[in-house]
Structures are given as C-alpha cells and as structure tokens.
Amino acid sequence: MGEFSFCDSLDTEERDKFFSYIANSFGEKKTEKSESPFVAKWQRWIKKSEDKGVEEVLNDFLLSKRPVHFMERDNVIMEIYRSFAGDVPMLIFGRDEDFEQFVVNAACRGEAPSDIHQMGASFLFNSEVMLIALSRKPYSNVPAGEMGLAGDEWRRRSLLLRREHECTHLYTRLFYGTARNNLHDELMADFFGLMAAMGHYEARWFRRFMGIGMEGGGRLSLYTQGLPPKVKEAVSEAAGIASDFLERWSRSEKFSSMSRPEQVDYLCRLGIEGMCGEQ
C-alpha cells in the first residue's frame, strides 16, 4: 500500500500492531440520542448561582464531599453551551489554579495527578453527571508566539479550541458510543477545534500540538503509550499524512457543503487509513 510505504521497515509483529492501532473503531451511528437529565439540573444550578455564587452552588450540589475554594470565584462561569452535539453543561475558569482544583476534587477524588498542570480540559461523564470543564491555558502548552498571537488572545482562542474539541468527543460518545485517547479521535477533535478557534485549519498546527518532528514528549506520546518505538514512528508518519489531508479537505467544496454533524460522520467513516489514502 503506497501511502504506507513508511511501514516497509516494520517486521510482521510491528505491522500488525500498527494496523491494529489505526483500525477504525467507529461503527454504525445511532439515529437518536436521549437528552441527559443533567442538562436540566445544571440549568437549575445556574439559576441558583445568580444569588448564591458559583462556588457555593458547586459545593452544595456537586462537591459536598470535597468542596472547592476558588482563588477567583467571580471568574468561574457556569453555562449551557448549545453545541452541534446538543446542549452541554460547561464550567469555564479564568484562573488556571481554580480549574486544576476543580478537576482534582471533582474527577480525581482529591488526589492531584502528576500531569495536572498540563491538563486544560476535563470531561466528566457518568450516570449522574455530564459536564465539560475548560481552562484558558495555552492549548497543548504551545506558547502564544508560536501561533503568531498575543498571550491574552491565544488564551481566548485556546478556550474556543478546547470547547469544540471536547464537543466533538461528546458527539462521538453520544452517537457512536466511543470517545478514546487515540489518534483518529484527536485528529477529528483538533480539526474542528482549530476551525472554531482560528477560522481555518493548518496541518502544521496539529503537528505542533502533537509534538510531531520534535524531540521529547508531545501529545502524540500520550496516545501511543505501550507501542514499540518503530510503531510509534509509523503512527507519527500517518498522523502527518492525515493532517495534510484534513487541510486540503477543509478548503474543498465537499467540506463546505456539509453540516457539522455530516463532517464528523464523514471522518468517523473514513478513519486514519482513509485519510491517508485520500491523496
């Protein structure tokens, strides 16, 4: 397969692991989804927060076992975001430390993970809660100067990027039953996030977010944990090819003729192998 010529150096076991990793996990789309009862509950909490304040409402109804004490309590926003995936309860933090404290108390049982300072969004989803918490941290820890923006402007756009990124994950979870830490999911989520935040998509931005072509970490290392080094390199190559396809597709009439759900559905069906084959 010409588009995967970089796999020629892989042995049989490595090739199997590579193709297993990029296999498309999105099956048939559900035709309907049920509304989360948490949306109505969140709306009532928003109303209560107008009198009591966000911190007190969160501590009363969501964090009674591990209450929070924000540094900038007036800079925490509760809202319902009307996304293409439906109405989404959201918490938006102006101060990074307040976002981190909420994540630790609400999602990590009071124990701060080692990478808490690297986290910029948290998706709480279980039988009782459906909530997206967002910070304004520079997206993927990329400095504003590398995006050609002032610091405050990049923080503003990072929020928009994260919001659309997480709503893309929510859409696939609701309609396809899955949202994973996998290259396919991240290609789609970053694509729509960048379109929302920057107005267009450039593959070089995605590569920078993933750390492709850079020494050391990068987000791609999070999504390829446990893979052999040569397989990780092959996945990185595939990510670059797929991101180039997304840049071309974003400028096509086919893309502009689709609604947002149709665009996501198309990429779900296409998969990484399909993106790499669409030259």
Task: Report what the structure shows.
- The chain is α+β, with helices and mostly antiparallel strands.
- It has 2 domains: 1-25 and 180-279, no CATH class; 30-144, no CATH class.
- Helices cover 52% and strands 9% of the residues.
- Strand 1 (76-83) and strand 2 (86-93) form a beta hairpin.
- The radius of gyration is 20 Å and the shape is globular.
- It starts with 11 loop residues before the first helix and ends with a helix.
- The mean pLDDT is 94.
End-to-end span in angstroms? 13 Å
Mean pLDDT: 94
Low-confidence regions: none
**Radius of gyration, whole Å:** 20 Å
Describe the sheet with the most strands: 4 strands, mixed
- In the residues, how many domains can be counted? 2
Write the layout of secondary structure elements.
Elements: H1 12-21, H2 37-52, H3 54-61, E1 76-83, E2 86-93, H4 96-107, E3 121-125, E4 130-134, H5 151-176, H6 183-198, H7 203-210, H8 220-223, H9 229-250, H10 253-256, H11 260-277
Parallel strand pairs: 2-4
Antiparallel strand pairs: 1-2, 3-4
What would you say about this model in short?
With 279 residues, the chain is an alpha+beta fold. It is 52% helix and 9% strand.
